[in-house]
UniProtKB/TrEMBL annotation:
GO terms for biological process: iron ion transmembrane transport. Keywords: Membrane, Transmembrane, Transmembrane helix. This is Divalent metal cation transporter. Coiled coil: none annotated. One of its GO terms (molecular function) is manganese ion transmembrane transporter activity.
Length: 406
């Protein structure tokens, strides 16, 4: 009898680690989408070795934002929209609408990226590739243990992307010494690049992806905080490794004076680095990045409306499937609606300060967190992210709105 108890306890611990790693990789792979690959390549072209500084600052802001959000979700045992509704009635609904809009619009881009990935990998038509990819994503939510399947796909895809990206970084022989020096003493600083990276890594639905996954897996309460913090930092670390590896790969190509094709910058880098094999590798990375972003965006967006009606809660996996279908059908019929993506992209930049600011207020309300005392250093650093992203998000929105009427 005693041996059985020991065995069960060991099993529980193992499952716990798997869930924590799954949540970290869900968040990381949700942020590593087609946009991530393009942004990193373009900014490295523009800033060269100084882009290392942008990565460093954005990673610090990412950690401050994410640790705050995940801890408050875990302590309260509530999803983001439920905390927001307790802070101010109706705020959770507004937050949910913004996140679902952003998630749906960007998922059209993710589905398109998956199609392009299969095109580069196997030569399949992009629309056909997008439909095949959507079918794969839907299958994850049809299986009985959808949560475990999602965790496993995110982890495998994440490891494959890291291995291939690091390999390509080595093949381009980048000037690592120069990159290290410029990371701490940059010759050029781009505020726009920092905002874009932070928004792309922890903006919109992405901040909540892993936190909501942990909650669904039953990881909550003050006693779980060390694990929650470790999982959230692991997620940012994975995105950091990917970002640094791609940065070095592009820097190696740029430092050799090779011309990158502006029509598809990341694909061009892989082709220049490793020829036709490199281009096929890009297809694998692009597909893995896109398909995990499709899954992460759909899962997290729907998690924001689950608590609004018992039927959504009961059939949430089917709602996720409908979400993926709408994204795929939109891409197949009308392509990527550029104007909508521009507007929602600007709105997405505002979701982070609104969401994080709401979480920080919630951290000091007893009816949300009970007797829990939120660390003052986390409040200060989180508040800093709210102000920086709020001001720059509004500036971006003002710039983007006129473009809709051209």
């Amino acid at each position: 009898m005693g041996e059985q108890k020991i065995e069960k306890a060991g099993t529980k611990k193992k499952v716990g680690k798997s869930v924590l790693l799954g949540a970290a990789f869900l968040m990381a792979t949700s942020s590593i989408g087609p946009g991530f690959l393009t942004q990193t390549t373009v900014f490295t072209q523009q800033l060269a070795a100084s882009f290392g500084f942008v990565i460093l600052i954005s990673l610090l802001l990412d950690v401050f934002a994410q640790v705050n959000v995940w801890r408050i979700i875990a302590v309260s045992g509530l999803r983001g929209q439920e905390i927001a509704n307790k802070v101010l009635p109706g705020l959770g609904v507004i937050l949910a609408i913004l996140i679902v809009m952003g998630g749906l619009a960007f998922n059209i881009g993710n589905v398109a990226g998956a199609g392009l990935g299969l095109n580069a990998m196997l030569g399949i038509d992009p629309i056909t590739g997008a439909i095949i990819s959507a079918a794969f994503a839907i299958f994850i939510f049809v299986v009985k243990e959808a949560g475990k399947a999602m965790d496993k796909v995110a982890q495998i895809a994440g490891f494959v992307m890291i291995i291939l990206m690091v390999y390509v970084a080595f093949t381009t022989s980048p000037p690592v010494g120069e990159a290290v020096i410029n990371t701490f003493a940059p010759s050029e600083i781009s505020i726009f690049a920092i905002v874009t990276l932070v928004g792309g890594t922890v903006g919109g639905y992405i901040t909540f992806a892993g936190g909501h996954r942990l909650l669904d897996a039953g990881v909550k309460g003050v006693e779980s905080l060390p694990d929650v913090t470790k999982s959230s930092v692991t997620g940012i670390a994975v995105t950091g490794i990917m970002r640094i590896a791609l940065f070095l790969a592009v820097l190696g190509v740029v430092s050799q004076g090779l011309a990158i094709d502006p029509a598809n910058p990341p694909a061009s880098v892989f082709k220049l680095a490793a020829g036709e094999v490199g281009y096929r590798m890009f297809g694998v990375i692009m597909w893995a990045a896109a398909i995990t972003s499709v899954v992460g965006a759909a899962y997290t967006s729907v998690s924001f409306i689950r608590s609004f009606h018992p039927m959504i809660e009961k059939y949430h996996n089917w709602v996720i499937i409908v979400f993926i279908l709408i994204s795929t059908i939109t891409f197949a019929l009308v392509g990527r609606p550029v104007n909508i993506l521009l507007l929602v992209g600007a709105l997405n930049a505002l979701i982070l300060p609104l969401a994080l600011g709401t979480m920080l207020v919630g951290a000091y309300k007893k009816d949300i967190v009970g007797d829990y005392k939120h660390p003052i250093w986390l409040t200060i650093t989180g508040g800093l992210v709210v102000v920086i992203m709020g001001v720059l998000g509004i500036m971006t929105l003002i710039e983007q709105i006129p473009l809709l009427f051209k």
